[in-house]
Amino acid sequence: MKVKDVMTSPVLSVESESPISQAIQLMLEKRISGLPVLDGQGRLVGIVTEGDFLRRTETGTQRRRSRWLEFLIGPGRLADEYTRSHGRKVIDVMTPDPVTINEQTSLEQVVQIMEKHRIKRLPVLREQKLVGIVSRANLLHALASLSVAAPSPKTDEAIREAVLAELDRQSWAPRHMIDVVVRNGVVELWGAVIDSEQRKAARVVAETVPGVKAVKSHIVWVEPISGMAFSDPEEDEAPIAPAMPPAPPIRAAVG
């Protein structure tokens, strides 16, 4: 999927010279946690979020440090913190020069960028013009819409083949040490692994195959150093959770 398939558009925004009270009021009214910031020509210059209002002198939450620590930090950072905690315009508190993406960016790239920069939303530009925004909420909507149950295999044999094929694709799976038996849609896993996480992941493999009604794991975890064997603590039959419902319509707001 591409950004154009999940982004919120049109986008609510605020001008850089607007008072911070306007940004706060807009976020509260629309129940959103962040806004793109535009200059007088409509160009994207920043992002303002709830986090930018945490350290404010009005609420007594501005940073306080000892003199010796202030000396170590330096005047530049101290001045910036003062501007953020006392400033009256959006430009004083916003994060400038935000990371941006375009409509053809893949969702995989979106997640990588969010993780790398530790951010929750990405403005979408088309020829330097803001046309949308992608937030974590948009990704959740996409996940929900894709979680509708797929057609179920018709036979136990088809289910077994699907489980084995997925195990074969995973580098962590000791395929030759795990066997799969399927009866009336109930998958039983047998074998031995050297890490308890392998056993957990093998259960997930079986649970995510369409048509599986329940999974029962008999996989034994053998601790490599001591050689001790441990049975699966969840060896009881586990029913499969139903698929999530389709995502609700995405409103023209920033999540």
**Principal-axes shape call:** elongated
Secondary-structure element order, N to C = EHEEHHHEHEEHHEEHEEEE
End-to-end C-alpha gap: 19 Å
Characterize the main sheet.
6 strands, mixed
Q: What is the radius of gyration?
A: 26 Å
Average pLDDT value?
85
Which percent band covers the strand fraction? 15-25%
Would you identify the regions where 5 or more consecutive residues have pLDDT less than 50? Answer: 242-255
Strand element count: 12
- Helicity range of the residues? 25-40%
Count of runs of 4 or more consecutive helical residues: 8
Which structural class do the helices and strands define? alpha/beta
Main attributes?
single chain, alpha/beta, six-stranded mixed sheet, four-stranded mixed sheet, 32% helix, 21% strand
Structure report:
It is a single chain. By secondary structure, this protein is an alpha/beta fold. The strands form 3 sheets. Strands 7, 8, 9, 10, 11 and 12 form a 6-stranded mixed β-sheet that branches. Strands 1-2-3-4 form a 4-stranded mixed β-sheet. Strands 5-6 form a two-stranded antiparallel sheet. It starts with 13 loop residues before the first strand and ends in a 16-residue tail after the last strand.
